[in-house]
Amino acid sequence: MRTPLGAFFVVLIMLLLDVYVFIVIKTLSLSALPGTRMIIFSIYWIVSILAVIGFLVFVFTGPEFLPKKLRTYLFATVIGLFLAQSVAVLFFLIDDIRRVIEWGSWKFLFSNNEAISRSVLLSWIGLAAGAILFVSFIYGYTNKYNYRVKKVKLSFDNLPESFIGLKIVHFSDVHSGSFMNKKAVIRGVEKIIAENADLVIFSGDLVNDRATEMENYMDVFSSIKAPMGVYSTFGNHDYGDYVSWPHNGVTKEQNLINLANVHKDLGWRLMMDEHVALEKNGESIALIGIQNWGAKARFPKYGNMEKAYAGSEKYPFKILISHDPSHWEAQVKADYNDVDLTLSGHTHGMQFGVEIPGFKWSPVQYMYKEWSGLYEEGKQKLYVNPGYGFIGYPGRVGIMPEITVIELSRSSSTTV
User: Fold this and answer.
1) What is the four-CA torsion angle of 410, 412, 415, 416, rounded to 10 degrees?
2) Which of 160, 234, 272, 381 could potentially form a cystine with 238 if both were Cys, beta carbons 3.0 to 4.6 Å apart?
3) Mean pLDDT throughout 62-90?
4) In the chain, what are the domain boundaries?
5) Which one, of 321, 180, 302, lies nearest residue 241 by Cα?
6) Residue 65: what pLDDT?
7) Tens of pLDDT along 251-296?
8) What string of H, E and C letters represents the secondary structure of 244-302?
């Protein structure tokens, strides 16, 4: 993307969208006063040109050119405008296809060459849809630290009696490199601590790329404690696969070692394709932790489930920490059907969607069958946490950052 040819191609698409949307706006504003039309046109083109300039600034400058917060919001706003225009154009294209078909029919049947006018209704619907999406996108900036505590009660027939009522806090996808408000992050961590959980589990992606991203947040996340411990694993971003190395003299391999030490310094037990026994009143269950294992082609399979699982057969109940939920569908259900509960993250719920009682939707569901919340098949359960942090888009629309509180039980499953 950081090539003149690639940037030119994207700018060309942006300008074509600008022109297409402008034609519709121009048509709809024919009845407006000339002065009003000029104001509308001027605002539209000023915003459009600024968006193109913003895109070029992001592509051809380094992260030091603008403050992190300004750079992040600039890029996200440009993307938001692009998506809003794209949605609007879908409606305009439908209308144009209709016009071409009607014009062709009239010409063929009646030799009538008159142009077919635009549908005012479809045009307004397109503009409204684009505007609503853009406003939602901007409003979502206010929700990125709007942490929600979701309580889930899960029942299992084979849960040892000593573990009935076990309280687990599960969170995922911190992405500390995206944070811009430490006080807001602290408020979320305070919610985790306030739950007084027996066990805390973090299911990967502590950073975006580099271990140094945690430097300003060590004091925050090290305050998370639990009687039975805090256990964690790596997610796809933790391996540093998406940036160039070395960085400031640090190699990719050393970065991963440094990040493992970050987990250790936080007081978290990093699970690297292994399992441990959790004991209570003389009874035990297994906690298995695997490195990132994704079924999607573009995500790596660092984890070794066979190694992590080996020796856990003797435990009557098993919990698996696996960052990518596609692992559950592709391997856990098929080959490890005595793993009772899998805890994942990764998808973020795409940070965009709808989640109301009885209904949830996000574009990410077209990539991931299990993308947020609870999934069950037979006696096995998967819970996908939609993430504590954010990456790319500095906001949340509909899918809020979540702290999941799970209580293990032998009673009927209910969600609060």
Assistant:
1) -90
2) 234
3) 90
4) 4-141, 146-415
5) 302
6) 85
7) 999 999 999 999 999 999 999 999 999 999 999 999 999 999 999 8
8) CCCECCECHHHHHHHHHHHHHHHCCEECCCEEEEEEECCEEEEEEECCCECCCCCCCEC
Instruction: Specify whether the CB–CB gap between 372 and 384 falls below 8 A.
Output: yes
Greatest distance between any 2 Cα atoms in the chain: 90
The CA-atom distances, in angstroms, between 167 and each of 153, 270, 338, 413 are 9, 20, 21, 14
Say how many residues make up the chain.
416
Assigned token pair, 286: 């297994």
Question: To which H or E segment does residue 321 belong?
Answer: strand 318-321
Residue 95 Cα distances to 24, 128, 295, 391, angstroms: 11, 15, 40, 36
C-alpha 348/C-alpha 406 separation (Å) is: 19
- Provide the percentage of residues in the chain whose pLDDT is more than 70: 95
Neighbours of 277 (CB within 10 A): 12
Residue 170 phi, psi (nearest 5): -120, 125
Question: Residues 238, 242, 245, CA angle at the centre, nearest 5°?
Answer: 90
Count of Cβ atoms closer than 10 Å to residue 357 Cβ: 6
Cβ neighbours of residue 380 closer than 8 Å, sequence gap 6 or more: 328, 332, 333, 337, 339, 340, 341, 342
Q: 194 is written with which tokens? A: 């306030």
Question: In this model, does residue 4 exceed pLDDT 80?
Answer: no
The C-alpha angle with vertex 286 and arms to 285 and 289, in degrees rounded to 5, equals 150
Q: For the domain 146-415, what is the CATH code?
A: 3.60.21.10
User: Given the structure tokens 């991203």, which residue do they identify?
Assistant: 213
| Residue with the two structure tokens 């160039």 | 244
DSSP secondary structure letter of residue 397: B
Distance (Å, whole) CA 285 – CA 319: 8
Q: Which of 360, 309, 368, 316 is nearest to 344 (CA)?
A: 368
Element (DSSP H or E) covering residue 79: helix 68-110
CA angle 333, 339, 343 (to 5 degrees): 90
